[in-house]
Amino acid sequence: MQFSVYQESHIGGRKVNQDRMGYSFTRDALLLVLADGMGGHLHGEIAAQLTLQTMSALFQQQATPYVRKPERFLEESLIEAHHAIHNYRITHQLTETPRTTVVVCLIQHNTAVWAHCGDSRLYWMRQGKIMGRTRDHSHIESMISKGLISPAERNTHPDRNKLYNCLGATALPKVEISRRASLLPGDLMLLCSDGLWAVLPDDDLAYHLYNDTIVRAVPDLLNAALAVAGKHADNTTALAIMWQGSPVVDSVFSVTHGSSSTMISTEALPQNLIGTTIHGMQGAPLATLELDDGVDAFNDDEIEKAIAEIRGAIEKSSQMLK
Questions:
Q1: Which of 51, 190, 262, 318 has its CA 20 to 30 A from that of 25?
Q2: Residue 67 and residue 73: Cα distance in Å, rounded?
Q3: E strands, the chain, in order
Q4: What is the reported pLDDT for 206?
Q5: Number of domain units in the chain
Q6: How far apart are CA 301 and CA 307, in angstroms?
Q7: At a CB cut-off of 8 Å and minimum separation 6, what does 41 contact?
Q8: In this structure, are residues 18 and 37 in contact, taking their beta carbons and an 8 Å threshold?
């Protein structure tokens, strides 16, 4: 399994960045998650963080090295994240439950399936064309689908910020799951918050991601959205990958960083090892390698060697950037 990945987030004109993003991977599976804490409720960043942590923890439990029932995993994990948010409110005696929108994608065996609650979006692109994207769980999208208003009114209608689905609400979230999508080398997956898609047209997103590398296109798009929105800019976040499938020749496991960009090849990654950029509330370095609890198939020397190779690749790349 090979893919390039880039992720970046900006606070915009807000006091707090309530967006969270991250990815986890095993030898045969990749999980992408982006959550946008809802600013109309207190502690949206906590809801977003708990969502990422819950998804990552369950992925680490079930991806051995791939998830057997992807659709069931996505639905149950998001419901579990919803419960984790409510439990946090009770434990910390918050006056209201934090809320977040979320979009998540699971890729394995050259097949992607995704799920979402709210208006955090996923775009699947191929050769500059949008093959598919999530449909927002919003009042606006509902009215458009019923023919009550024109799609041109998305960004100007007074009800454009009204959502009917999220994690942390009183009712259980309605998890919308996609059909399985067969990926080809060169396909792009973009997960983003409304700070990006609500400002720039879909065609602009597709054009820039097709005509440049993700390490250049993603920050360019984020900066463009921030410039257009100005001082009223929302938190603006994107996580993108270019899928490269399985390599023809054998390769060693590697993680190579350039800025926040990563090329990952997992062909030689031991089955019981998991890489992740999803961390707890206090944060941690961008790249980590975690051992799946309960699995002891490799001795300490082999594990230390794998970790040393990853650290070496990161340090070498960092020196090249200076």
A1: 318
A2: 7
A3: 2-10, 19-25, 29-37, 100-108, 111-117, 121-126, 129-133, 176-177, 181-182, 188-192, 236-245, 254-258, 261-265, 273-276, 288-291
A4: 98
A5: 1
A6: 10
A7: 47, 96, 97, 98, 99, 168
A8: yes
Cβ density class 4-15: b for 16+ within 10 Å, e for less:
bbbbbbbbbebe
The partner residues of 262 in beta bridges, in order of sequence, read 5, 257
CB 175 within 8 A of CB 73: no
Give the domain CATH number at 175: 3.60.40.10
CA distance 230 to 91: 38
The parent domain of residue 233 ranges over 2-321
DSSP 8-state assignment for residue 176: E
Looking only at the bridges linking them, the beta strands covering 121-126 and 129-133 are antiparallel
Residue 119 pLDDT greater than 70, yes or no: yes
| pTM score, whole prediction | 0.82
Which residues on neighbouring strands pair with residue 242, listed in sequence order? 4, 188
Assess whether pLDDT exceeds 50 at residue 322. Answer: no
User: CA–CA separation, 137 vs 78, rounded Å?
Assistant: 15
